[in-house]
Amino acid sequence: MYKQCLEKPLQLIQMTLAALWIYQGLIPKILFQSNAEINIWQAMGVELDMAKICVALSGLVEIMFGCTFLIWQRTGLIHQLNILGLTGLLLLIMITDPLQLTTAFNPMVMNIAMMVLSIVAIQLLKLRNSQL
After folding, report:
1. Looking at residues 3-19, what average pLDDT do you find?
2. Is the separation of the CB atoms in 62 and 25 below 8 Å?
3. Contacts of the segment 121-128: beta carbons below 8 A, 24+ positions apart
4. Could you give phi then psi for residue 68, rounded to 5 degrees?
5. Model confidence over 52-78: pLDDT tens digits?
6. So where are the chain's domains?
7. Stretch 11-38: mean pLDDT
8. Are the C-beta atoms of 25 and 59 separated by less than 8 Å?
9. What average pLDDT does the segment 89-104 reach?
């Protein structure tokens, strides 16, 4: 019974993280390439045309990563990778374009919220596994 109570919040977290990663890969990187995303690649020394390709490719990787939350719903590893990746992306923004952190709904807000979801998921997975 207790184990079943943990399933719905875990599924909600998995679906939310999947949707956020898929959205972030599809909308600002593939369908409507964000100037901010292009600028990050250019700040790393990539030419404009190649920067646009890199943005699209990073969007594809984000979509694939989002799908992993739908496929592997019983493992904390994907959440550990999420926390690590989001921390790395946040550090990248701090280095390449720190002014992005001053805007509304900036990467700091999104990344921390997504990291906290993964922290909660890891805690729920440990609780569920201890109830077996």
Report:
1. 91
2. yes
3. 121/10, 121/13, 121/14, 121/17, 121/76, 121/79, 122/76, 122/79, 122/80, 124/6, 124/9, 124/10, 124/13, 125/10, 125/74, 125/75, 125/76, 125/79, 126/76, 127/6, 128/3, 128/6, 128/7, 128/10
4. -65, -30
5. 999 999 999 999 999 999 998 888 999
6. 2-130
7. 96
8. yes
9. 90
